[in-house]
Amino acid sequence: MTRFRIDLGYRGTDFHGWAKQPGLRTVQASLEAGLARITGDEVATVVAGRTDAGVHARRQTVHIDLPTAGIEKLIGKASRSAEAALLSRLRGVLTFDDTDDIIIHAVSEVPGDFDARFSALWRTYQYRLADRRSFIDPLLTPMTLRHKGELDAEAMAEAAREAQGLHDFLPFCKPRAGATTIRTLHELDVTRDQEAVITIDLRADAFCHHMVRALVGGLIKVGSGTWPVTQPAELLAEADTGIEPDMPMFVTPAHGLVLTGVGYPEAEFYASRAAQTMARRTQD
């Protein structure tokens, strides 16, 4: 088997999320169908981070393993590398219906200990939010949440700064059985761009289910005056001491969210990073 890294992006509007689901169009199902067409075999994909229905990705990362026979079928009689063949042919089969909602950026051969999910150091997301002050760009409305009133972006930015760091993010996560909600949030920045659209940028070692959209929801409560600036940090401080949250999450719509990138260490650290990631997180 030879392992390949695939860097791709997609417009999530018409997908029911990343993961395969019976009878539904998903990014994983579309990608694996394309791989099967060009290799002649079923090919399993491992993704850096699953995205929910309607969430977009500017830069997502996947790895696959191909047997020698599959690689030979890819290359055929052409005098080109397996990487070039996989890039060209995968782009071809994914755009046959002219939708262009999956874009393959690059393909590279990687060592067998590279793991798209567990070798990752961080993921970054951006959420776009337009309020009454913002210029509404019709080309970007499919990936921008519109808020009726005006939000206090400065208060949101202050609350965001206080929520960074190593915490139990249970107040802003939908927990999964047997999984921890402890994460390190390296960055949570709130700014207005040149068109007064509020952009919320996040970077963490990993995100638990609904974490980004629930954090954005909490910041919207701060910006609208429903919550005090200190509320998100106070909820995290309580969770860090084992206190269960006593208020429901406000999860924002998916279409405003974009996965913007995934970072990895140098090749020599792929295996050690994967082992570290698979170990259960603690706050010690």
End-to-end separation in angstroms reads 39 Å
CATH superfamily of the largest domain: Pseudouridine synthase I, catalytic domain, C-terminal subdomain
Q: What is the C-alpha radius of gyration, as a whole number of Å?
A: 20 Å
Shape: globular
Tell me which CATH architecture of the largest domain applies here. 2-Layer Sandwich
In which range does the helix fraction lie?
25-40%
Decide which structural class fits the backbone: alpha+beta
List the helices and strands in order: EHEEHHEEEHEEEHHEH
Predict the CATH topology of the largest domain: Alpha-Beta Plaits
Q: How much strand content do the residues show?
A: 25-35%
- Low-pLDDT runs: none
The CATH class assignment of the largest domain is Alpha Beta
Number of H/I helices: 7
Main beta sheet strand tally, sense and closure:
10 strands, mixed
* Oligomeric composition of the shown chains: single chain
Q: What count of domains describes the coordinates?
A: 2
What's the total count of β strands?
Answer: 10
Mean pLDDT: 92
Subunit structure: Homodimer.
Function: Formation of pseudouridine at positions 38, 39 and 40 in the anticodon stem and loop of transfer RNAs.
Family: Belongs to the tRNA pseudouridine synthase TruA family.
GO molecular function: RNA binding; tRNA pseudouridine(38-40) synthase activity
